[in-house]
Specification:
11 helices, 256 residues, five-stranded parallel sheet, five-stranded mixed sheet
């Protein structure tokens, strides 16, 4: 039986602000070296992937041009099915069977974490292929590291409900669980809903509950703040005061 290729999990930057200048700071040289050598790719978004690879090329020349690369998009089985795309993870991993190494890239951060790439990683394991995670930035871990909250016991919740009532109910539930287990609760939000999320936190959570907001993590505009809800209410007394947080990649953490 022919030797299978390796699936490399290639981390992306957490934003496109000064991407080329940021690469040597957020990615180890070995991660950049491995990424530059790959020709076969599965990516969440081809446009984002090409911009990232162009930045890699400015630091270390790519083995082949971006035009020569074989690049497929994967945004999760459920989303693909919604748009009538019947492709399966195993279909996208065929280069591994031919002995070619492949790269899996998220739109931002690391593949498989808050990312549909986990389905492809599991499929690679089922094939018996080696999976190699490369070191890079994760907003979830960076936020937890910098929050000052409990890093021994924590849970990642993904996205919270969009409905105002359901979101408030979920926040109160997370607060209860955090208090009971002394567990840091972590979640992310679509950037254009940041203000709505912070407003919901200030309305729904107890005054002494600690809330950390990490904005633009690893970027020059990075901002990380942890303080009790009562202090957040004073800093941002209305939606207009929160405007600077809108449309910026953000991770939220609480500890009751």
């Amino acid at each position: 039986m022919a030797k299978l290729g390796t699936l490399y999990l290639a981390p992306n930057t957490l934003g496109d602000d000064a991407r080329a200048e940021q690469l040597p700071w957020v990615l180890p040289s070995e991660t950049i070296n491995c990424t530059a050598k790959l020709k076969h790719w599965i990516v969440e978004d081809a446009k984002t992937a090409r911009a990232f690879l162009k930045a890699i090329d400015s630091v270390l020349p790519l083995t082949c041009t971006i035009q020569e690369m074989q690049m497929s998009e994967w945004r999760g089985a459920a989303r693909n099915a919604k748009y009538g795309d019947s492709v399966k993870p195993a279909d996208l991993l065929k280069p591994l069977l031919a002995g070619h190494d492949m790269g899996l890239m998220s739109e931002a951060g690391v593949p498989g974490v808050a990312d549909p790439g986990a389905e492809l990683v599991l499929a690679a394991h089922k094939l018996g292929a080696q999976v190699k995670p490369l070191v890079g930035p994760s907003s979830i871990l960076l936020g937890l590291m910098a929050s000052g909250l409990n890093g021994q016991r924590f849970a990642f919740q993904g996205y919270l409900p969009q409905d105002t009532h359901e979101r408030s109910t979920k926040l109160k539930q997370l607060e209860v669980e955090s208090r009971k287990l002394q567990q840091t609760q972590i979640w992310i939000e679509t950037p254009y809903r940041n203000v709505a999320m912070l407003t919901a936190c200030m309305i729904s959570l107890a005054p002494q509950t600690l809330l950390c907001i990490g904005v633009d993590l690893s970027l020059p505009s990075e901002m990380i703040t942890t303080m009790p809800i009562e202090h957040w209410r004073k800093r941002y007394p209305n939606e207009a005061a929160c405007a600077s947080l809108q449309n910026r990649p953000t991770v939220f953490l609480l500890l009751a």
